[in-house]
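Hey, sorry to bother you again with one of my protein questions. There's a protein on my desk that I can't quite get my head around. No rush at all, and the record is pasted right below.
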Amino acid sequence: MGYTSDISLHEHLKKFFGFDKFIGDQEAIIQNVLGGKDTFVLMPTGGGKSLCYQLPALIMEGTAIVISPLIALMKNQVDSVRGFVLEEGIAHFLNSSLNRAAIQQVKDDVLSGKTKMLYVAPESLTKEENVEFLKGVKISFYAIDEAHCISEWGHDFRPEYRRIRPIVNELGAAPIIALTATATPKVQHDIQKNLSMLDATVFKSSFNRPNLYYEVRSKTNAVREIIKYIKSQAGKSGIIYCLSRKRVEELAETLCINGIRALPYHAGMDSAIRSGNQDKFLMEEVDVIVATIAFGMGIDKPDVRFVIHYDIPKSLEGYYQETGRAGRDHGEGQCIAFYSYKDVQRLEKFMQGKPLAEQEIGRQLLMETVAYAESAMCRRKLLLHYFGEEYDKENCGCCDSCVNPKVQFEGQPFVELLLETIQALREKCKGDYIIDVLRGELTSVIKSYNHHELEQFGAGNEKEERFWQAVVRQCLIHKLLKKDIEQYGVLLLTEKGQEFLQKPYSIMLAESREYDEGDDDDEPIIGMASKNSSGGSDEELFAMLKDLLQSESRRHQLPPFVIFPETSLQDMAIQYPITLEELQSCQGVGAGKAQKFGKSFVELIARYVNEKGIERPQDMVVKSMVNKSANKVFIIQSIDRKMDLEDIAAAKNLAFADLLSEIETIVSSGTKLNIDYYICQQVDEDKLDDIIDYFRNEAETDSVQEALSTLGEEHYTEDEIRLVRIKFMSEHGN
């Protein structure tokens, strides 16, 4: 299939890339592509996916069409290939960033046979002029990178990706290799089905990243904790992911104000600034990038030491891929996610107004993330199970659930009741519906199917919904249940589950964790990673204290440990004591030792704290942004984006009534604001007409209290009056 050579594959590998051997399944994947067979590659971040299509493209006859989602990613890949191979035209990208002359140069190189890899975005691939051009090109194969974008169940669904197969059919048959770093069995099936490659050879690498430490923390004391954590990781590279652009910019600015080298990154920034910030991170001119999910796809930085999720992600696939950017060099990688119920409610609110099918998919994916966050089970086991992989160890020793395990309880009666209920419902229902039946929730749907007449209806009402969600989760892990791959979320009994019902046995379950409501929306939260052997101590200060200890040891003619043990020095490098009284709070330091040996140590620490500008735990007051002048602009822009007023208020740490006062001030100053999108959700149409009519025809002043008195306090709220008054004043006064 376009490949004949006397040179071995290993010689090609050495010639083009300088490597002596393949890793994992690379060689088998490449042989499959060279053999002209469709290939599906599921390989976690850092596993060497790119080589699987780059090497066969270089040695096969014709040009490989590489479909990639991001312009920045294409440029990164093309630059990488050109770095290995001297001929500049060997790889090109074709997208909207090129001018007419550059596009013509690309086409000339492709037609001359010089170009072995042509990177295109799916949007570019579907353009008629490009389709006509590619019809005249000998195509060796199609490589579809980030193939999870095809699936509506994937974490980064792009409708354009679902149009790839028809275009391939139009351009002409050639083998397809689809590659992704993250896909559940459902997503994998969806990808293969959409690309008409259900018979493809599948290569699936393990999703286990043993060097990564997973932790979920409650979203409290946010700003203080994030700064404390990053400063304990001095000089290390990290990524903080946020869901909104506003939050990205504000958090990055807060970190900078507090002496941390950080930059923002999101799709709304000027492309030159965004690329510059990315380059500064790669070149280690800054330590931390605060970003939306736009950052990281294809970023090849091996020594990212921590990945923090400021907001809980929308899906476990997204979470896994983003955490996968930590520790790609197989070194330490701390993955910390911060979670509160408010985040979940906000994400659910964002789904409103979308098509019902999209809402259902989004909710199912979000519930999987909630299950992960709230679970007390080994996080590694949960993640791997989500991707269809088994993890046999009971304790991975590298996640918060295993390091600080929860007490287990006998779960046999609860599991039995759950499985009996699923069976009684004929295995046609999803988890939330089954739990409603168990807890005796008399919903209209349950009544319509007469499921309230089942023996199991209400049999589990002494337990909360969250408890039963945990039982469902753990039954899936124990392989007593499975989810229907075509009807995502429908629970089915496995053969093992059937056997359990026939002969129940003891099964230990773990209680799920509970989380606080969380802080205000725009206050991020990060915690200390509990796996650091140094306990998060300042390594530079620790080294200086050890040198001082050696000096003091010689001066006092005593062994170092007699003066202070190493654990005391580590604690000093965490707490930064600068007085003898503070020194006594360090491990292994009593009043006598502090008086006898402490003076030189606290003097050294005081100088260090002063020179470095260290914010000490005991006196750290987080410096915050002065944002009063920006409030007006932020409110106007947020309303233009149709952001819910509660979210605007929370973002600026305002009470809802105070936000309305701000909006009233803006409107009264002459600025026109359209809050119809919010009013239609909050105020009945009849009430809206009555209030408008009152202000237009009856009101002598704009007083809210007079309006309430006239219209009737029993029928209208103050907020309703104020909202409609804003609408009236904006439309008629500005």
Q: What stands out?
A: The first helix runs from residue 9 to 17. Residues 520-535 have pLDDT under 50 and may be disordered.
